[in-house]
Write a structure and sequence with these properties.
The protein has 371 residues and is an alpha+beta fold. The protein contains six helices and 17 strands. It is 27% helix and 31% strand. The protein is globular and about 70 Å long.
Length: 371
């Protein structure tokens, strides 16, 4: 997190008016595909793929604002924004493809101009409506391109973790998601200038989809990366109790990429249906840009069934990874006593041997040899 542009920042070249609806275009202009070329039309991806921008702006007070932004293609981070200079950082070797150096520089300048004006306008709006600091505004915008060439567009804003406004790409209108005065006033300002709505519709409908195609063409190796999952099954015994409790079987799957995965439990070769006995952690990220997941199944003690965890992932080439639960023989009281006595006997023999050897060393004086 770093300090962003404040109300007193100087904008290069010509600045937009702080009260201009075009100032609200900032989140859209941060999209790395805002200047995408429409002439080239590479093939569509073989599966649905989403390009989205995530942006967070923290308003500490009227003169202190922090901001960070990142662009993702699928789950792959492609660009980030240095909020102190509005410099776009390319996080993949192919992320700069599709635009010329001059176009990227123009985009950075446009971001700088609109960011400063957006912050000023929000501060004025908050002051007029009597809202307090601090508060957070978050944006998510982009599109999802499907193999048949159709796309789904989205542009949503939230404030303090709640829905704020969203853009309807079909009607070209901003829609308030709350009924308070601040949200309704923001909706009014956003819908004041139709040029902004038309521009946004064009970006989300046309430019976004074409930029996805361009990124897929240049970043094919990164996007088609496959990492095979590694899985292990173990049991967590219930705490001691008078009433027998279910045994919790856990299947830990990790190291897989891409993200989509399917994990199921088999009982005697048949898939276990949904219910309270099944639980999952959901798919979580690893530090090495792979994913992990934990799935658990509660089974009755001594049920006499066989259980296995089945993992299905694209890296397995259509096969499934099957990991059975190797149920070990329970440790009864007799076995526990026998093991305990064995350990004690071994320890006693070790002590006798050590004392015997230690005494032998003490009986040998200087210059003497042991018998």
């Amino acid at each position: 997190m770093c300090a962003a542009l404040g109300p007193s920042s100087r904008c290069p070249d010509v600045c937009l008016s702080p009260f201009s609806p075009a100032g609200m275009l900032l989140p859209l202009l941060l999209l790395p595909w805002a200047w995408g070329a429409l002439d080239a039309s590479p093939p569509v991806p073989t599966g649905s793929l989403t390009l989205r921008l995530l942006q967070t702006i923290i308003f500490h007070n009227a003169s202190s604002t922090d901001m960070e932004g990142t662009a993702l293609l699928g789950d792959l981070e492609t660009h980030s924004l240095d909020c102190s200079t509005c410099e776009i950082r390319f996080l993949q070797p192919w992320a700069q493809q599709g635009l010329t150096l001059k176009q990227w520089q123009d985009l950075e300048k446009l971001i700088y101009n609109n960011l400063s004006n957006f912050i000023r306008m929000v501060n004025d709006l908050v002051e007029d409506e009597g809202e307090g600091y601090p508060f957070v505004i978050q944006f998510t915008e982009g599109c999802e391109l499907h193999p048949n060439g159709t796309s789904r567009r989205f542009c949503d804003a939230g404030m303090n973790g709640e829905d704020f406004v969203s853009f309807d790409t079909d009607s070209g209108k901003w829609v308030a998601r709350r009924g308070d005065k601040l949200t309704l006033k923001a909706e009014e300002i956003l819908n004041y200038n139709q040029v902004v709505a038309i521009t946004l519709q064009f970006l989300l409908r046309m430019t976004c989809a074409n930029q996805i195609k361009s990124f897929v063409q240049h970043g094919k190796e990164s996007l088609e990366r496959q990492e095979r999952p590694v899985a292990v099954v173990f049991a967590r015994a219930p705490p001691p109790a008078r009433i027998p409790a279910p045994v919790l079987l856990v299947c830990r799957v990790t190291g897989f990429y891409p993200r989509p995965v399917r994990v199921a439990w088999l009982q005697d070769g048949e898939e276990v249906g949904p219910g309270w006995w099944l639980n999952s952690s959901g798919i979580l990220p690893n530090a090495d840009l792979t994913y992990q997941l934990r799935s658990s199944l509660a089974v009755g003690p001594g049920a006499g069934h066989s259980y296995a965890c089945r993992v299905q992932h694209s890296s397995l080439g259509g096969r499934s990874l099957l990991i059975p639960w190797e149920q070990s023989r329970p440790w009864g009281p007799g076995l526990v006593v026998g093991i305990t006595l064995g350990v004690v006997a071994i320890a006693a023999v070790a002590v006798v041997l050590w004392r015997s050897r230690h005494r032998g060393y003490q009986d040998v004086g200087p210059g003497e040899s042991s018998p």
